[in-house]
Amino acid sequence: MNPESEQIQVLLADDDVGFCELLSEYLRNQGFEVSAVHDGLAAIEQAERGIYDVMVLDVMMPKADGFRVLERLRANQRIPVVMLTARGEDIDRIVGLELGADDYVSKPCNPRELAARLRAVLRRSQPNSAEQTSLRCGDLELLPASRSVRLNGQAIELTGAEFDVLRTLIEDAGQVIAKEDLSRRALNRRLGAFDRSIDMHISRLRQKLGAHADGTPRVRSVRNRGYLYVAIE
Q1: Phi, psi at residue 110, to the nearest 5°?
Q2: Which structural domain, as residue segments, surrounds residue 50?
Q3: 91 shares its domain with 149
Q4: Cβ within 8 Å of residue 153, ≥6 positions away
Q5: Helical ranges in the chain per DSSP H
Q6: Do 143 and 222 fall into the same domain?
Q7: CA angle 206, 214, 183 (to 5 degrees)
Q8: Structure confidence at residue 76 (pLDDT)
């Protein structure tokens, strides 16, 4: 599926019916196909059908909040998720990213910005057969064509955003990358003054990849500078 040319199947989960109707109308005019649900359990049920390309997920919903929905999905789903968070609620953004959200937009949101975010996360999540076959760094192998990762030959499940952050680090392994540059190159977004999205993606990568065999951290933070992937051959 090409996010620029084919109709994108969007699952919109928000308990505000009026907001969903307005947002759905805008997205449909932009070429998206939108299905809306209004509680967390319905969101889980629909997402697990596996027919959607991307999900827009509000934090505050009845029956199961957005965090519970995301946690359930990340146990067995790789669908890209854009969280809707209350403006100024940093903790919602942090928790969402910790649980594996690919991106977030603050409410009340600009529909045009949301549409751009949806296309961006889809571009990051789509395999590209024209890309190089593999990118290796020690015991870690990235396969850009399938957007998959292997550690000592074992598959590691990453979200689209996590894959792009890791790929950027591996491409410059051993070199410090400023958080602002990492956000721009990997996520295609400017890093706000209090934006911790890169920190959260790094935290999840550390959890999933662990340390090198000798105990050396794979991803090291350099105070006031950024992050680097520690290359050990």
Answers
A1: -85, 115
A2: 9-125
A3: no
A4: none
A5: 17-29, 40-47, 66-74, 90-98, 111-125, 160-171, 179-182, 197-209
A6: yes
A7: 25
A8: 81
Distance from C-alpha of 193 to C-alpha of 206, rounded to nearest angstrom = 24
Reported pTM: 0.67
Q: Are residues 106 and 139 in the same domain?
A: no
Cα–Cα dist 91/27, whole Å = 28
Q: How many residues does the chain have?
A: 233
- Check whether residue 14 and residue 120 sit in a common domain: yes
Same domain membership, residue 142 and residue 92: no
d(Cα 173, Cα 129) in Å, to the nearest integer? Answer: 24
Q: For residue 89, what are the CA distances in angstroms to 93, 108, 118, 161, 206?
A: 7, 12, 21, 21, 25
**Are 20 and 104 found together in one domain?**
yes
CB atoms within 10 A of CB 154: 8
Going by C-alpha positions, the residue among 52, 69, 178, 219 that lies closest to residue 231 is: 219
Residue 1 falls inside a structural domain? no
Judged by phi (left if over 0) then psi (alpha if -120 to 50, else beta), residue 91 lies in alpha
Say how many domains are in the chain. 2
> Measured in whole angstroms, how far is the alpha carbon of residue 179 from the centre of its chain?
16
In whole angstroms, what separates CA 190 from the centre of its chain? Answer: 15
Whichever domain contains 113, its CATH number is 3.40.50.2300
154 and 91, same structural domain? no
Write out pLDDT tens, residues 146-197: 888 999 999 998 888 899 999 999 999 999 999 999 998 888 888 877 778 8
Amino acid type, 157: E
Domain contains 54:
yes
